[in-house]
Design a protein that fits this description.
about 350 residues; alpha+beta; 11-stranded antiparallel β-sheet; about 20% strand
Amino acid sequence: MKTLIDYLRFRFTASPFQALEVVRSALGFVTPDLVDLGGSEKGKDGWQHRRPIILGGDEILGYVDYGGESQRGWSRWDMSGAGCSWIERWDLLAQSLPSIGGELRRVDVALDFFGGEVSHDDVLSAYHRGLFKKPHVGRSPKLKKVETSCPTDGRTIYIGARTSSRFIRCYEKGWELLAKAKVPEGFKTASSGFYFRRNTPSSPADYYRLEVELKAVDGFFIPLDILTNPDSFFSGAAPYFESLVESAPSRLVQPPSDFLQVQTLQSSMEHCSRAYGGLLRSLLELYGDTVETKARLFDALCSQNPSDSLVRAGCLSLPVGGGAGRDPLGGCPAPDTITKELKNDLY
């Protein structure tokens, strides 16, 4: 396949734990038991209960909603792109969903380009040439542009209505990921490449994503075939997409990227250094710059609990070291304030 499934929503009539077993059977790159349901929370959208779908005890991959008379026995499985990236056997999932009364309600299919093969201006040009029109429709769907005066904020194009069965997003994914990870502005352009893919550096300006969101509304039915052949559904969303799929290289089957977790951890260290680096240096000047003093200061200043935001981002699941693209202190530009000694001590 050339495309990837980046969001999955289905409703079902079995129990949430039966749905979990069905999804577990399709996982790859991770032991199925590492994915579990968290504790019950207050439900949303008319459901009585909600449970997070958790990887490794901390990273949230999505949610299951269930209960409530108004839902007429239906429950809902919502899995984000992070969760979908762990699914390897989409064919098994497609085969198993009927066993729990499953029906697809939303599927997002995306196509990524990492080397600048497709640009924002290319998409705008295709739109003005009518390459996003539906067959036998004389007028192009509505286009909305989102951009700021800062080029590293990234630009986005929305095509169509968000509430319709087909909604298209085209955006500069590299800049979006750097913003999500809160990478300091000075480091966004300091490197020739970030590891959005494992072991393959890319410029954030060259990483572009095109995405179609398909929803079961307005009488539109999403067949299970989309899980095993997303390329054809992506191609059918717009004439422009058909030409892109034909020219795109096949996507490598590999474990999900750790990019967001690595960059989030690195950015947090940089912010900590800026906010408290002067205090720590003053304490070392006062008590002595020795390994023993550093250890005592670390114990004195360290919280009893890890950062909630880093836990939610899945940073605590990162392996120590791991090579380019996985080590938050290597493979990507490290802040100048992070010393060589610290890198040696931690890794």
